[in-house]
């Protein structure tokens, strides 16, 4: 069957098809059929591909994931979304699990055709099968929601990642999508977040410059996620002390800052954050426990005893579920 494969790859599908038809039935296995169906789709001969797909059973064969992939991806690339989704549903009905490539190709086709309903169907499938955090899939979801005029749904996809993907296409889909929907403020925010993500050790000043630009040049109020980026940047660079030079972070960032102080053993800022958190929740011992752990890491045992004494004096060691055991 090498001859039929060679003709197919060279675009001479007519010759490949004749060679295929001339082979005796018992020598045409599923791999051969899949190759021929894929080549028909590649050469935009979808009617012949459908006919061959339907004839598989007469040969005593059943479509496998590769067969379904050729049909669904083929129709999606041809822009015939209705047929692509038809085979997608049939594939699930017969119990064959779609691969990530199929799901992504369907989403791309939906975005190009502005078929929001079908895009949401794929999103639902991705959530049910726990593949929604794939970078390519997430980018395709952002693209379709932005093109359909639903930037808030695209933002939901973006926010599901605690650690954002590095793929530039993911960020560009968000920035370009906001621009397309005339939400230039959000586009600027995402752009700045992307810039901070690229600022690693040795680029602290650049990251702080972008942060200050938000208010001074763009008139944007930093949100918790922006402070989170700065905490990560300064923490990795051992410069958490610079947080004091910036605007007061929102309450939701205090715990993250204290966690960063634990990682990088910054006792000065740790004391400040622990105090702020205790002012908000005086009956929560966690800030003092974390602060105690900072001093353990520094080997400052007198301070460890002082903090644990505070926990005892406040009666926080008697709370249900609390332990004085040092938390690593």
TrEMBL record:
PPR repeats lie at residues 29-63, 64-98. Gene3D superfamilies: Tetratricopeptide repeat domain (1.25.40.10). GO terms for molecular function: RNA binding. InterPro entries: E_motif, PPR_At4g14850-like_plant, PPR_rpt, TPR-like_helical_dom_sf. Keywords: Repeat. Transmembrane segments: none annotated. The keyword Repeat applies. GO terms for biological process: plant organ development; RNA modification. This is Pentacotripeptide-repeat region of PRORP domain-containing protein. It comes from Glycine max.
